[in-house]
Amino acid sequence: MPAPKLDIVPDESYGLFLAERRRGIVSRLAVACSRAGRDVSEVGMLAVSKMVEPEAVRCAWRAGWRAFAENRPQELGRKLSFVESEATPEMATARFDLIGNLQKNKINQVIGKVELLHSVSSAELARAVSSRCEAHGLVQACLLEVNVSGEQSKSGFAPDEARAFAEEACALPGISIEGLMTMAPRGDADAARATFSGLRELAGDLRTRTGFALPTLSCGMSDDFQIAVEEGSTLVRLGRVVFDPEYDFF
Fold first, then answer.
1. Cα–Cα distances in Å, from 17 out to 60, 234, 241?
2. At residue 148, does pLDDT exceed 80?
């Protein structure tokens, strides 16, 4: 089912809320970086806009957000159409990623339109994306989605499957494997930390196996992004903490 939309009026007061909330997020991210001995410039932030209308994305842009993410190709297309046709001219430089599950029959709706495809969750999908990209003369930047926690409800490679497939994945001509993505169990800080540290350790293993830099670790969401940053995340995916005034942030 599509994510429920937030009931938001994208007016001046909402824009002020977005700017204030962004300052709070950046402050907490900086604290997490400091605890881990990292520089804040090492961590990118995606505003996950799947639950808001395009006008709210424009408000977020004006509040300082520059990179966004969607989880469905159809909604991605709607947001991109808005940016190209109605938004302020400077928003043409906005980055959009796809973070949700991708069906093979939707690949053509995504490739060449997103900066990064986070959810290459199987060898079959990786090969299919590569083949479609080759046919269109494209090379799409991708992440391998890894189910580090082992939860049955989550998609992605098991860690050992990622190890076995990594060399082939990095050799596929239509895609460029830039790193790994994972999601942690909700509501369990210890499990989240173990998941994120597991992703970091797996990335180190795959770098040795493939010789590729694999610089991107996409992990950490609204409830656990500080833990993710402490464990090595280079890209956090933030939805409700960015857009929802009702989200309990303080």
1. 10, 26, 11
2. yes
**165-176 per-residue burial string, b: 16 or more CB within 10 A, e: under 16:** bbeebbebebbb
- 3-state helix vs strand vs coil in the chain, percent to 5: 50, 15, 35
- DSSP E strand stretches across 111-181: 117-120, 140-145, 175-181
Tokens 């499957």 found at: 161
d(Cα 193, Cα 176) in Å, to the nearest integer?
A: 28
The CA distance from 125 to 183, in Å, is: 19
- Tell me how far apart the alpha carbons of residues 88 and 196 are, in angstroms, rounded to a whole number: 37
Q: How confident is residue 3, by pLDDT bands cut at 50, 70 and 90?
A: low
Q: How many CB atoms lie within 10 A of CB 164?
A: 13
Contacts of 11 (CB under 8 A, 6+ apart): none
Q: Where do the domains of the chain lie, and which CATH numbers do they carry?
A: 12-243 (3.20.20.10)
State the number of CA atoms in the 13 A half-sphere of 65 facing the CB: 31
Cβ distance 142 to 117 under 8 Å?
yes
Q: What is the pLDDT of residues 80-101, one digit of tens each?
A: 999 988 667 888 899 999 999 9
Instruction: State the chain's mean pLDDT as an integer.
Output: 95
- Residue 171 is encoded by which pair of tokens? 């050799």
